[in-house]
Each structure stands twice: as structure tokens, then as C-alpha cells.
Design brief:
Rossmann fold, alpha/beta, globular, single chain, 2 domains, 12 strands, 5-stranded parallel β-sheet, Oxidized Rhodanese, domain 1, 18 helices
Length: about 350
């Protein structure tokens, strides 16, 4: 069957149009970023790609192509054995590689020869990446946002989750970034995505939102861990209406202790995160906190973190960066209990609508 060339915009216009999206690049390229829901069928693995590249530079093009073709053929055969044993003839894949050239072309040729209806992305991942960067600002400005604000530990993320469960549109940047945003927000054992993939994940969420309905989002700073939020989204967020959540300090400590279990279970890791505050608070303060955490007094450390680090500059930063902060309505959250956080989600929605 003929291979159909298709642009990234055409390819991704309809969800579910293809039975599989196949990325023919190397595993390291795939790990850096890829089209959402793509599967990695490398035409060349990382070591093979280096080998063929070296042959191109140090020997000659003919030798590189000859050895590359042998490796690609073996790899494609392995993919067919691994993935296509029970696939019907009606299966329709979308295939791409770095630039839409040899790697995806070889795979598409074999799949088409088998009898599958194959589509190939023109320009490959490079064209997809350009599309993401071009479309993100457009998709951002097509939506209206409701920003949930509040100091650390008031339960903003819990409220976002409750709103999502209730069917509201939610953009959870911390979930996409695999980070809880604050200095202590690193999630043990969970690496953050690359900057490129973070941007792809945001674009993918934005394209699925209904512009006729609001999008709830937390009042993030420009950076979530090591990742940077797209400037267009930061600008839109900071110009949007807010609701300010508030909760008693002792309840905030309870919630943080529950959300950040490593405060108690891994005082060594907790201490490593506290070390990042030395430049701001000094060795004496941080070393005291580390000793208290080791001695089992993590809750006391968290309370001091709120009073000495998080809270003092929060309102100043919000007033400086969010245009409508001074007119934000306040929702008081009674406690850190799941029931009260669930009730707070309903109160937040009501505050925006009144």
C-alpha cells in the first residue's frame, strides 16, 4: 500500500485516528521528548546511532549506509516479531523519526509492504516540536483561567484534584512537572521530565480543553522545580481572577506532614532538601532544623519553615505578580481533613461564580 505523508497538525487533529503512533528515533531521543502516547520502535538504538554517525564522519557515506541498513533491518524485524503478531490488516500506524527521513521511512516502507495503511509525518519530530511551540501561545489565549491561590500547605492541589474529579477542567502543572513546586517539592524517586516534554504535555492538555468552559489552575511561579512554565501561560495566569485559600497554620502543618511523608520517614533526604535553603537562611538555622528532624520533630521544623521562609514573602510576591490579587475572594478551609478539602473545592468554585 502507498505511504501517506501527513503534517503534524493534520496527524494530531483527531484523537484516536491512528491505532498506534510509532517513534522510530533512538531511546534517548524518545526519552527527551515525544508525541503523546507514542511507542518507541528504534530503527537504531543509541549505541548503533553513534556507530553509524562515526562511520559517516570517519569512513564514508556508502559504508555507513550499508552497515546502517543491516542494523535497521534487524531492528525492524525484531519490532515486527514483538508487536505485530496479533495485529489485523486494518491496523493503521502513524510513524515519525527526527526529520521524517531514513529511519521512519525504512519502517514505514516495511509496514506498508506488509499491507498496513501507513501515515508518515513530514518533517518528523522537528516539525512536531515547531508546531507545539507555535500553537501553545494560541491555545493559551483561547482559554480563560481561574487561579487558585494561597500560601504553602493550604491544600490548593487537593482542591484542584477535587475539581477535576467533579468534571471541571484542570491544568495541574505540578503533576505534569512531577514536582510540588516549592524548594522541598522534589518527589523522591520521581525524575522530572525534560523541559521539552513538559512543554509538550502542557500543549497536549491545552488542546483538549473546551474554550467555552473555565480552566482551574494553581498560582504557580515561573519555575516548577527545574522546569520553566511557558511565558504565554504565566502571562495569562497572572492576569486572571483569583480565589485565595486560607487555613490555620496548625492544620497546614498537618496537611504538609501528610503530603510530604519523607519529612518523617526519610530525615536524611529531608535534610538534603533543607540544605538548599542555606544561602537564604544560613547554616545555623538549617543545621538546627536538620537536627530537629533527625530527632523526630519534623512537625516543628515544618511550622518554622512556614513562618520563616514560605509565608513572609508570599503575599508580597502575589501582589506584585498577579494583577487581580487585591480583589481576590478568600475561602477559609476549616481543616486538613479530606471532607473539609472537598467542601473547599465547592466553595472555591462558588466564589468564582458569585
Amino acid at each position: 500500500m502507498p505511504i501517506h505523508a501527513i503534517t503534524p497538525t493534520e496527524a494530531l487533529a483527531e484523537d484516536g485516528r491512528f491505532d498506534a503512533i510509532i517513534d522510530a528515533r533512538s531511546p534517548s531521543e524518545f526519552a527527551l521528548d515525544h508525541i503523546p502516547n507514542a511507542q518507541n520502535w528504534p530503527s537504531l538504538d543509541d549505541d548503533q546511532r553513534v556507530l553509524i554517525g562515526t562511520l559517516y564522519k570517519q569512513v564514508n557515506t556508502f559504508e555507513a549506509k550499508k552497515q546502517g541498513a543491516a542494523l535497521v533491518a534487524r531492528n525492524i524485524a525484531a519490532h515486527i516479531d514483538a508487536h505485530l503478531a496479533d495485529v489485523p490488516r486494518t491496523w493503521q500506524p502513524l510513524v515519525y523519526c527526527g526529520r521524517g527521513g531514513n529511519r521512519s521511512g525504512a519502517l514505514a516502507t516495511v509496514l506498508s509492504a506488509i499491507g498496513f495503511h501507513v501515515h508518515l509525518i513530514t518533517g518528523g519530530y522537528k516539525a512536531f516540536r515547531a508546531m507545539v511551540m507555535a500553537q501553545t501561545p494560541e491555545r493559551v489565549t483561547a482559554l480563560r483561567y481561574r487561579v487558585i491561590a494561597g500560601a504553602t500547605g493550604v491544600g490548593k492541589t487537593h482542591v484542584l484534584h477535587a475539581l477535576s474529579t467533579a468534571g471541571e477542567q484542570v491544568l495541574d502543572l505540578e503533576a505534569l512537572a512531577c514536582h510540588r513546586s516549592s524548594v522541598l517539592g522534589l518527589i523522591p524517586g520521581t525524575p522530572q521530565p525534560s523541559q521539552k516534554h513538559f512543554e509538550t504535555l502542557i500543549w497536549d492538555q491545552l488542546r483538549h480543553f473546551d474554550p467555552n468552559r473555565p480552566v482551574y489552575i494553581e498560582s504557580e511561579s515561573k519555575r516548577v522545580g527545574n522546569l520553566t512554565v511557558p511565558e504565554s501561560l504565566i502571562t495569562a495566569m497572572r492576569a486572571s481572577p483569583l480565589v485565595l485559600m486560607d487555613m490555620a497554620v496548625e492544620e497546614r502543618v498537618k496537611l504538609l506532614m501528610a503530603d510530604y511523608s519523607f519529612f518523617v520517614t526519610d530525615p536524611e533526604f529531608f535534610g538534603q532538601r533543607l540544605d538548599t535553603l542555606v544561602a537564604l537562611l544560613g547554616h545555623a538555622v538549617v543545621n538546627t532544623w536538620k537536627a530537629e528532624a533527625t530527632a523526630g520533630r519534623s512537625a516543628d521544623v515544618v511550622a518554622e519553615l512556614l513562618s520563616r521562609h514560605y509565608d513572609p514573602k508570599y503575599h508580597e510576591s502575589m501582589a506584585r505578580n498577579f494583577a487581580l490579587f487585591s480583589s481576590a475572594r478568600t475561602v477559609n478551609v476549616n481543616s486538613a481533613s479530606p471532607a473539609d478539602l472537598q467542601a473547599a473545592a465547592a466553595d472555591v468554585k462558588l466564589a468564582f461564580e458569585n
